[in-house]
Amino acid sequence: MAHKNKENYSPYKARNASKMAKTSHEDLKGKHKKPDQIFNAQEANDRMLDIFRNHDFKCSHEERMQLARFYELLMKNQENRNFTRLLNLRDVAIKHFIDCMILTELTELKFPLIDVGTGPGFPGIPLKIRFPKEKILLGEGVQKRVEFLKEVREDLKLENLDIIGRNINEHFVYPVNGVITRAVEDITNTLRNTMSCLQEGGEVYFMKGPGVDPEIEAAVKNMSEFFELKADIKYDLPKTENHRRLVIFKKIKNAPLPEEEDNDILLNDSF
């Protein structure tokens, strides 16, 4: 469970354990600039198990195998596409995988769920790995990221996953019950851009940092006719000092849809 505690790092039982221990602080701060060499999926799985145990995070064997392969695909494409500044397995496991999947311990997500501005697949791909049977959509307007997401979907054999190759705005009206985003766009703009696709009673989940109060205040002031603030959950990534906020808005009223000829109902840009 997410909680506040000081780091209690134990080096992995791997080939270069002393080096891993020596660089642990640099790893967590994202200063280690080279991807880890993963020789096979089982080794990656074992190392990720150690990481998750050290940070009190539960993850099944099947989930770890898919996350390990996702990490390999990220690193394979990193040099040409520069998807993330975090490169070694420990950083990615904590600040991407745990960061995305820990939400399932904090709230009950609603599906179908669209991840707006997913980038290389955060939080959408880890959530899809956790909920393989649920409908998830990934919205992304940058073509090189769209191509990568298609590669990940095929390689990991992820079903019931739609990739929307465009930016999500008020003309996207495909019905969903949940919206999630880790993107930097402010809360008010995201609520406006997803107002047409989110059904009444649906929820928008914002993965934010500790300084999000001005965004919350602006959204409550400007969007109160259609949305209400349901929850503001403050938490830390387990055994780190990485502070997070999960802000949840609930849609309480439908807004008039834009002109019909401009709307995208059939996922024309999906793959």
3D architecture notes:
The protein is α/β, with parallel strands linked by helices. It has two domains: 17-100, no CATH class; 106-262, Rossmann fold (3-Layer(aba) Sandwich). Helices cover 36% and strands 18% of the residues. The protein has helices at residues 17-22, 24-28, 41-54, 61-81, 89-101, 124-130, 143-156, 187-193, 213-222, and strands spanning 113-116, 136-139, 161-164, 176-181, 198-208, 227-236, 243-251. A seven-stranded mixed beta sheet has the order 3-2-1-4-5-7-6, sandwiched between helices. Strand 1, helix 6 and strand 2 (136-139) form a beta-alpha-beta unit. Helix 3 crosses helix 4 and helix 3 crosses helix 5 (89-101). It is globular and about 55 Å long. It starts with 16 loop residues before the first helix and ends in a 20-residue tail after the last strand. Residues 3-32 have low confidence and may be disordered.
SSE ordering:
HHHHHEHEHEEHEHEE
Q: What is the oligomeric state here? A: single chain
- The CATH architecture of the largest domain is 3-Layer(aba) Sandwich
Flag low-confidence runs.
Answer: 3-32
Features:
seven-stranded mixed sheet; Rossmann fold; alpha/beta; disordered N terminus; 271 residues; single chain; 2 domains
What's the arrangement of secondary structure elements?
Elements: H1 17-22, H2 24-28, H3 41-54, H4 61-81, H5 89-101, E1 113-116, H6 124-130, E2 136-139, H7 143-156, E3 161-164, E4 176-181, H8 187-193, E5 198-208, H9 213-222, E6 227-236, E7 243-251
Parallel strand pairs: 1-2, 1-4, 2-3, 4-5
Antiparallel strand pairs: 5-7, 6-7
Helix pairs in contact: 3-4, 3-5, 4-7
